[in-house]
Amino acid sequence: MFKKVLIANRGEIALRINRACHELGIATVAIFSEADRLSLHVRHADEAFCVGPGPVVRSYLNIPNIISAALISGCDAIHPGYGFLAENARFAEIAADHGLVFIGPSPAVINAMGDKATARRLMDEAGIPTTPGSGIVASVDEARSIAEKIGYPVLLKATAGGGGKGMREVHVPGDLATAYATAQAEAEASFKDGRLYVEKLIVNPRHIEVQVLADAHGGVVHLGERDCSVQKPSHQKLIEEAPAAELDPGLRTRLHEIATNATRAVRYTNAGTLEFLVSGDDVYFMEMNTRIQVEHPVTELIYGVDLVKEQIRIAAGEALGFTQDDLHPHGHAIEVRVNAEDPDNNFAPAAGTLSTVVFPGGPGIRVDTHVYGGAVVPPFYDSMLAKIIAVGRTRESAILRMERALGETRIEGVKTTVDFCRELLGEPRFRAGGVGVGWLPEFLARRAQPV
Amino acid sequence: MTEDVIAARARALAGALAEAGFARLRVRDRETEIEVRRANHAAPARVAPAPAEPPRTAGERAPGERMADVVASDVVGIVRLARPAIFEGQELDEDRELAYVETLGIRNPVRSRGSGRVVAVFVTEGQPVEYGQALFAIDR
Fold first, then answer.
1. What pTM was computed for the model?
2. Do A378 and B132 touch (CB under 8 A)?
3. Confidence of residue B38 (pLDDT cuts 50, 70, 90)
4. Dihedral sign of CA atoms A32, A35, A37, A41 in order
5. What CA–CA distance (Å, rounded) separates B129 from B138?
6. What is the CATH T-level fold of the domain A132-200, as seen in this structure?
């Protein structure tokens, strides 16, 4: 097992990893930007290094300074968390070149899954269902002929994409050229890679993803699915739950099988997530995320498995301590993302000082956060302040518990998504379960209309 | 940089100030200039954006007040002092290399950025340093 791990991240996930390390008896090294000098992850770690000024390019993406901090502090591994360098194969390679274990899959797998067109091709070859579509298209004319073949509506997607960037829906042929140009420009600006591919747009599907763990000895298990269909118009997830409600048992089993087959097919190791679009009885592979995900706690709470500790054990070369038969979910868990953003103004992010911070507690509530009263929310980073997770015996009891918990939550100084999420939980359609990804955007459009 | 970030940085500098026994410390980078004063007249740490506060000339100093520029590391790595080693009290008649910080085998030179008297050496040979860490103070 590792002696000392550098945590190449900030915010709640840095704290989450720090906790897993300390429970495993591993010392920790935090990195921070000048804007995060007073952040909680710096205080919790055994050592901490400032790696640059506030902007991420000079700090949390500063590979030389981060690797150097790991080396001079005597670390033997690096945990990248999510975002930042978590899916950067070059970072994983550089770490390995310096004798540091990257806690995640191999650089080759990160590269293959990070390039969406390559991932689709590999999954196709492994017999995993993907949405009808193309490989990289060379021109708008090629995109047009593919769109005509598979039929509108289609989705133009950046192969280097993620987080909804470089993605455009095209409903009628006349809009294709403009959508192509804007998606390409956005992908070029965001990822320095403007290559696009075309796929069939599945209308209002559910976003259901399967958590997997795979060790270096051929052990592969799934830890069930999460439903992340409550997404903002920007495709960012807002409320997640496990298991998925109102899902046919046969379909559920099929999803789990597809996920473990895909994991074996790409020789995946460590924790990963396969994202699927589910429409009626149809399942389509969307992408594989080669990292721990924001919403991992809902899985942890129903399976009783610490996914971050498993990531560390797998990276250290240990075999999984359980098989599929040992894993049984209990109850239902739901997560709400508390973001510093204004739901009444297109979720515009806010920065500032948090004058009051009171989080909920009590039975069945877990809060993963890095903020505290008086903490400053810098303008440079993701706006997520906390994740509140509720677990109950049933979906209804978990939702009631979440409503109670959100009622206890007080965050003042910046606008947050707390009250808005509480409003969503009360919506009869959400309560019924099984909403599609179109539900929240449609709800927002309805809500914005004057009565 | 937000004011809170500047304040956090100023607090860190105040530590270096107390250690070295100066009346004032001033740090500059591309975006900001921070000056920290010892509170013998109970003035709080003063924070000024660079454009609002052009560097003073020696002639503007209050009597008896010492002024020093801090040379900080802009990388994370191991300090290698110049040879012969820079010492406190040394007069520098021109810009020169005081040390380098080694990061992944690359030498990142640390220069005095002009002449002056070295009034503090905050680091020792082989010491690990972080971004923004004070290495030397130079009286201009």
1. 0.88
2. no
3. low
4. negative
5. 19
6. Dna Ligase; domain 1 (3.30.1490)
Residues of B in contact with A71 (CB under 8 A): 104
Give yes or no for a contact between A14 and A36, defined as CB atoms under 8 angstroms apart: no
Residues of B in contact with A69 (CB under 8 A): 76, 130
Q: Which of A111, A103, A88 is nearest to A6 (CA)?
A: A103
Q: pLDDT tens digit string along B45-80?
A: 333 333 333 444 444 545 555 668 999 999 999 999
Q: Do A68 and B103 touch (CB under 8 A)?
A: yes
- Would you kindly state where each structural domain of chain A is located, as residue ranges? 4-103, 132-200, 206-448
Residue A202: band (very low, low, confident or very high) from pLDDT cuts 50, 70, 90: very high
* B3 in contact with chain A, both atoms CB, cutoff 8 A: no
Which of chain B's residues have a Cβ under 8 Å away from the Cβ of A377? Answer: none
Q: What is the 3-state secondary structure (H, E, C) of A383-407?
A: CEEEEEEEEECCHHHHHHHHHHHHH
Which residue's entry shows tokens 């060790």? A215
Task: Indicate which of A32, A72, A353, A371 best probes the interface with B, i.e. most B CBs within 10 Å of its own CB.
Answer: A72
- Facing B130 at nearest CB: one of A49, A54, A351: A49
pLDDT per residue as tens digits for the range A217-245: 999 999 999 999 999 998 899 999 999 99
Question: By 3-state DSSP, what share of chain A in percent is helix, strand and coil, each rounded to 5?
Answer: 35, 30, 35
Q: A386 exposed, middle or buried (CB, 10 Å; 0-12, 13-18, 19+)?
A: buried
pLDDT digits (tens, 9 = 90+) for A310-361: 999 999 999 999 999 999 999 999 999 999 999 999 999 999 999 999 999 9
- Whether B2 and A65 lie within 8 Å, measured CB to CB: no
Question: Is residue A291 among the annotated active site residues?
Answer: yes
Report the C-alpha gap between B54 and B71 in whole angstroms.
18
Kindly state the tokens that stand for B61: 């100093």
3-state secondary structure of A48: strand
Euclidean distance between the first and the last CA atom of chain A, given in angstroms as a whole number: 61
Which CATH class name applies to A206-448? alpha beta
Domains and CATH numbers, chain B: 3-67 (no CATH), 70-139 (2.40.50.100)
User: Do B75 and A376 lie within an 8 Å CB cutoff?
Assistant: no
Cβ–Cβ contact B32 with A under 8 A = no
Tokens 């960037």: give the residue.
A165
pLDDT per residue as tens digits for the range A25-82: 999 999 999 999 999 999 999 999 999 999 999 999 999 999 999 999 999 999 999 9
